[in-house]
Amino acid sequence: MGHRTILVIGDNFLDQLGKFQRTEYADPLSKYVLSVEILDKAKAYYEKGSKAEDSFLNWVKRMYVVDILIDGNEPDLTGAQKNGWIVLNANGEISSVIERTIPEGFFDWFEGTLSYWKLKPDAAGVDVNLAEEFSVVTGFAGSAKKSAIDLTSMWEIVDRCTAERWEQAMVACGSQSWEAFDTLWSKYKTDKYNDELYQKTYTEWAEQPSVKAISTMLCPDESLWDELSREELHLKNLLWKYPNHNAIDRLRLPRNAYINSYDLGHLLNYSGVIKDGVFLKDPDERALFDSLADDTLLTIAYVHS
Predict the structure, then answer these.
(1) Using one digit for the tens of pLDDT, what is the confidence trace for 238-260?
(2) What is the C-alpha separation between 88 and 94, in angstroms, rounded?
(3) Distance between CA 268 and CA 76 in Å, rounded?
(4) In angstroms, rounded to a whole number, what is the distance separating the alpha carbons of residues 72 and 67?
């Protein structure tokens, strides 16, 4: 149980999110709920370990929370057949098991938008609450057209903070490189995970002079951090206070490559991007934002997951 922040690109963001809501929390009549035949899958699971416990019919009823659909009846998708149904043949044997599912579901419910978009002067956006009520806002918004958002200043924060981090790290380590953790781990790891070997690898990685110098370097003057925006403070903390081995090893990149490896997701703390109903895997956000038309709607959605 937790929460997740998602960037949704395009109109009808609530409808787009519907494609990724877990079935048990979705409207049972949602267009994204599919009726899927799972008889073969159910048989395989049953044969693997549950055969001796119960009959296949009783096991299916219990495992998938479904019951028999009387021959000739239409399924009641908001009632008895909300989760699916079982069909029996003339011999009383299961001939079909239907499961009602949203295949790509990963969150429970929408809790609202987060007012993370900095709007341009005189521009407006909207905030949306748990009840899906929309309110027009200025200054900062949870959802707004690309043309209304001051993306230039937001990218400037990303570039400035990451440049500062890289430059000061190079001063600390004297621009001397080091062996990345993953490279060391590839030498020691076995097919079966071994925590002792992992810790040994981590210690060897952390004891390298350059890594030690970067890990122990002081943060910039934190007395000035109180004046930072919420977003810049989050990015500063991410870069300086909570660097794991992946974050430190990323500093091995050349300066511009390091800067470009960070995006608005690091500034605004969203962990996924949905565009026009498609969940994007590791998108190049700089190229993505450049490609969007000015009237594209951008929404920061906060979901329970």
Answers:
(1) 898 877 899 999 999 999 999 99
(2) 4
(3) 43
(4) 15
